[in-house]
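User: I'm putting together notes for a lab meeting next week and I want to include a structural view of one of the chains we've been expressing. I don't have a solved structure, so I'd like a prediction I can at least talk through. The sequence is below, exactly as it appears in our construct file.
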Amino acid sequence: LETIIHHAKGKIKSAAIDWREKWTIMEEKKLEARSLASGKIDFSRGPMWRCILAQAVPLTVAQLVQLLYNVVDRIYIGHMDGSNGLALTGVGLTFPVITLIMAFTALFGPGGVPLFSMARGAGDTEKARRILGNSFALLLSTAAVLTVCGYLFCRPILFAFGASEASYVYAKAYLDIYLMGTVFSMTATGLNGYINAQGFPKIGMYSTVIGAVTNIILDPVFIFLFDMGVAGAALATVLSQGVSAVWVLRFLFSDKPPVSLTRGCIRADRQTTGQILKLGTANFIMQGTNFLVQVTCNTTLQLFGGDLFVGIMTVTNSVREIFMLPVSGIVSGAQPVISFNYGAKAYDRVRSGIRFNTWVGSVYTVIAWGLIVLMPRVFFGIFNDDPAMMEAGVPMLELYFFGFVFMAFQLAGQTTFQALGDAKHAIFFSLLRKAIIVVPLTLLLPRMGFGVMGVFLAEPISNVIGGLSCYITMRMTIYKKLLEA
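Assistant: Thanks for the context. Below is the predicted structure for the 485-residue chain, given as structure tokens.
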């Protein structure tokens, strides 16, 4: 009898455990279904690859649309009658200014997102709100300063960036109007990351889709119908950025996000600003080194090749932006997911996210590299079909993309350092690839007999050295510690 009773108790206990496990799974599925229905992603549930893709797909679409802001402008401008490529060259000369604005946006906007995500993961909502408000205050004040400085020093800045008298006319016409939208650009781009970081990637996607659609519609109207040329392209961009900024602020000031923006929290305090600067410096340097590279490339190309090769570099950078988009969307989607799980001490999930980033990025960049090798003229022709520019530019495009696969390792390592708050390594590897490798090579190789080819050769060399160094260091430091945790 005792044996029968003992056996029965075991059966009942086993059944109870099975029932609890099934009930837990059912509840998790219900929570996941509710999360999906509401458009919000729970970073703590489900496989990491699914969380990252759910975050990354809308972000990639959003970044695609964001890319259209500039790419559509260049496509229209590159095919304007009578400019002989000078209009495209002029717009290319404004890239360093726009990049500098984006650098400050990345410093105070996305620079605070990892801190924001870790605070949410730790359950500290008020701290997360302070970071959001502080970030907004810094974006507004910086936008005002950059706008004033841009108007005061427009001519000397553009000539320092490689303008000639012929290309300056187009560059100034574009920049005079673009600067008016600095506050819109910094607000929309800088705060959109806080929407994505709260698990609303679709809302973040709409932020850019709305603006980009506006830009696509207005571009041909202002450029061709109103015959405004490059000034029309700039006006279309400013208006579309204004629409995006209104959308972002309307959502963040509502009660829909878990951490909303309130008037009382829009202020900068020393402690929070210091924390944002610590991590945001890596983002700033990443964009800032892009600025430095663009200036160095334009001035060197103007010296060794003239306006033609400055225009070719504009096309090359445009093609690169297109191909960087998917892998950039993946790592952007992964960053808040990894940060959240790191804050929640779910280290196995963090490792899974890092592995997913690396494999997807590697496969994609190999495919992208192959497409450039097979169809260089197709991609170059999207932006300009001038015969002289095409013949000189296609070999430069092929050279520039050599070794593109190594960018996947750079992005995987860099994203991990940023997501886990390792500012020291994030800053160093931002500097290494661009400031320490590309800029010196851009200055030296043309003077060593490579001519304009040396400017385009600097990029693949930096991809190999910088990408491998960043990824290997990440594996030997952060990833190793996660395995031991």
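A couple of points you could mention at the meeting. The chain has 19 helices and no strands. The CA atoms of residues 315 and 383 lie 6 Å apart.

User: Perfect, that's what I needed.
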